[in-house]
Amino acid sequence: MVARFAADRAHLTAVAYRLLGSAAEADDALQEAWLRARQADIGAVENLTGWLTTVVTRVCLNLLRARRNRREEFLDAHETPSGPGAEAAAESGDPAREALLADEVGVALLVVLDTLGPAERVAFVLHDLFAVPFDEIAPLIEKTPAATRQLASRARRRVQGRPAAPAADAGRRRRAVEAFLAATRGGDFTALVALLDPDVVLHADALAVPAPAPVTVRGAETVARGAMAATARARFTGPALLDGRFGLVMAPYGRLRLFLVFTFGADARITRIEVVAEPERLRGTEIAVLDTAP
């Protein structure tokens, strides 16, 4: 068991991270799974990797259900799930590692997964990301294979979202958003200014700044300087489709905090950026994963 668990640790961590969206929580799930595995009689187990995957999934499913209950309690108390202390356990890990894993998996995918119910998330992650058959997933979530297939299909539609809004220069717009993120992460002021229209306008709601009132700034250099101040945030930011438009989502530890929607001019330079953190707008916007770039 020690040797098998060690050999499968990378796989089990990948499963737990995609189910939970947090490296710290994934580590906790693996620790709990290891404690359960040590106490189990594995003499008749033929596929130890599959058995360990099941144990990890059950632990993660319990954590997802507990998290959902906590969020319902926050809503009942008229608070937001992202309020002070709500995600303290998840945010106690290594920020650099969390950011690296989020980038590898895709920030937008983590955001969409976080909107799914526990059973939907398990069905989609295990089947679509790890090719586990539905008849093996079904007992974990106490559903029939047919119902499990439907859950995965519904989750898949959420992940894919609506297609990007038709535009002759859609490829250039997407590349501009990705270049904006890369320049922000890299602190490349010159590259940022080149992506922006000279008269670009940035509007941020009060919760995004934060400030007593919404903030509006104008001009390429002014907007670029503001982006330079958000380099730390950019580590947890990734491209996404927002109601079919190209944009960026910022989601530390897999929890959506804000998004940026871009408007483009005829030359595909950015003419307007809207930064949104108001909970109602976050909940009311369809966020989807970008197709793999050709």
TrEMBL record:
Q: The RNA polymerase sigma-70 region domain covers which part of the protein?
A: 10-68
Q: Ranges for the RNA polymerase sigma factor 70 region 4 type domain?
A: 108-158
Which InterPro entries did the record assign?
A: ECF_Sigma-70_Domain, NTF2-like_dom_sf, RNA_pol_sigma-70_dom, RNA_pol_sigma70_r2, RNA_pol_sigma70_r4_t2, RNA_pol_sigma_r2, RNA_pol_sigma_r3/r4-like, WH-like_DNA-bd_sf
Q: Which UniProt keywords apply?
A: Sigma factor, Transcription, Transcription regulation
Single GO biological process annotation from the record: DNA-templated transcription initiation
Gene Ontology molecular function: DNA binding; sigma factor activity
Show the Pfam families listed in the entry: Sigma70_r2, Sigma70_r4_2
Q: Which SUPFAM superfamilies match?
A: NTF2-like, Sigma2 domain of RNA polymerase sigma factors, Sigma3 and sigma4 domains of RNA polymerase sigma factors
Q: Where is this region: Disordered?
A: 75-94
Residue spans with biased composition (Low complexity)?
81-93
In the record, the note on similarity to other proteins reads: Belongs to the sigma-70 factor family. ECF subfamily.
Quaternary state and partners of this protein? Answer: Interacts transiently with the RNA polymerase catalytic core formed by RpoA, RpoB, RpoC and RpoZ (2 alpha, 1 beta, 1 beta' and 1 omega subunit) to form the RNA polymerase holoenzyme that can initiate transcription.
Protein name as it appears in the record = Sigma-70 family RNA polymerase sigma factor
